[in-house]
User: Fold these one by one.
Assistant:
Number 1:
Amino acid sequence: MRWFKVLNKAQIPTIDSIKTITVDGRQVCIVNNADKIFATQSYCPHAGGHFDGGWCKNGNLICPIHRYEYNLETGRGAEGQGDYINIYPTELREDGLYVGFEESWWSKLWG
Ligand code: FES
């Protein structure tokens, strides 16, 4: 696992909001759902909508384009969608928020 500091504590999105950040040139969405922080891929697998304009509902991230839903814990799409999004582990440390990426995933995509 490779960890990146992505935000200072003061920059973490407020409850039920989403912020897009760039990690080494790539976009990731930081989602605050009921004061729990998640990191997800930024584009919806359905038709490429950006999650930045989306919102949270019942632990799911809702895409603003066609309202597909993705579980923030597992990344799974709602029943019938047959898709999923990448969820990356987050860690709140003394100096801010960190997001972890699998080494194999990282080097395969962004090597
Ligand atoms: S692009 Fe996200 S639901 Fe269609």
Note: The radius of gyration is 13 Å.
Number 2:
Amino acid sequence: MAVEKEKKTCGQVMHEWKEFIWNPRTHQFMGRTGSSWALILLFYLVFYGFLTALFTLTMWVLLQTVDPFIPKYQDRLSVPGVMIRPKTEALEIVYNLSKTESWDDYAKMLNSFLEAYNDSRQAAMNEFCQPGRYNEQPDNGVLNYPKRACQFNRTMLRDCSGLNDSTYGYQEGRPCILVKMNRIINFYAGANQPMNVSCTAKKEDDTQKMGELAMFPADGNIDLMYFPYYGKKVQVNYTQPVVAIKFLNLTFNHDHNVECKINAVNIATDNERDKFAGRVTFKIRVNKD
Ligand SMILES: *[C@@H]1O[C@H](CO)[C@@H](O)[C@H](O)[C@H]1NC(C)=O
Ligand SMILES: *[C@@H]1O[C@H](CO)[C@@H](O)[C@H](O)[C@H]1NC(C)=O
Ligand SMILES: *[C@@H]1O[C@H](CO)[C@@H](O)[C@H](O)[C@H]1NC(C)=O
Ligand SMILES: *[C@@H]1O[C@H](CO)[C@@H](O)[C@H](O)[C@H]1NC(C)=O
Ligand SMILES: *[C@@H]1O[C@H](CO)[C@@H](O)[C@H](O)[C@H]1NC(C)=O
Ligand SMILES: *[C@@H]1O[C@H](CO)[C@@H](O)[C@H](O)[C@H]1NC(C)=O
Ligand SMILES: *[C@@H]1O[C@H](CO)[C@@H](O)[C@H](O)[C@H]1NC(C)=O
């Protein structure tokens, strides 16, 4: 009958629990007195308060060193990358003259790229600048935000603007390619001297087959007024300058490997490891029966 003795009645268990939760004799709540609870509460309050303060302080110190308008870790020595439009995965512009659908996408890509350059939009967004000099807008103690950018009108691309010829020459086998230089914040491209884009056949033997090129703006010139670029947050309406190349007499059914590079005194184009530094190479081929 010892087993029975050990067993508690339901009422006893209830009573024990009640006493555990609130013991009127010892004035303990869940086994602790009020002052004990208060101490525990105080400890956690101080502990978490300290953690929060530490976190906030660290965050604050970190943010003090960050200028919201200039990316902190940018490579000042970097050379601008160069890219073409239309851009394809392998940088190959290949199409068949008699098949509209084979070049239609290229024209569409150029259309969407050039929309921001519409004269009306440029007139609304950007200002007319004096050519041949940097568009500097220093802060001189006070923040000079937002900064203005200079107009680059779509009509400046003439035969490659897609305005008079919505096929950008693709239909007649005299296609246009746009060359653009990637943006680098605070980079004074050209070091105050004129710069331009030039394109050549990768293999000299192919120069004849590549035929003549037309460049827009004339001579592939890139004006200094589009530099320096101050960053997306500061110079919201900035549109980068582009140079259009029109192949006037491309030999059909032939792979042309073309290299376009930026000629500027402070842009190196001979980096072996980065083949997009200051230059870009692409293939163009127009098939014709
Ligand atoms: C830009 O101009 C082209 C040609 O005039 C027009 O088709 C297009 O809708 C314009 N885009 C914008 C965004 O103004
Ligand atoms: C761009 O086009 C607009 C509208 O036609 C014109 O007012 C402005 O002077 C042009 N800007 C440049 C740089 O040619
Ligand atoms: C940017 O362009 C808008 C029109 O699209 C214009 O209202 C605004 O003033 C421009 N901002 C700057 C900083 O040029
Ligand atoms: C389009 O053609 C007209 C008439 O031939 C010419 O005046 C205009 O300059 C051309 N526009 C472009 C952007 O080439
Ligand atoms: C176009 O190129 C061919 C050979 O590639 C050449 O015979 C012809 O004279 C060139 N035409 C022009 C207008 O340059
Ligand atoms: C292009 O720029 C280079 C170097 O800045 C210069 O030597 C060359 O004459 C320029 N070419 C043209 C067509 O302006
Ligand atoms: C170009 O397209 C036409 C029509 O589909 C086709 O007959 C021809 O073989 C194609 N030519 C080449 C070189 O791909």
Note: The two ends are 109 Å apart (CA to CA).
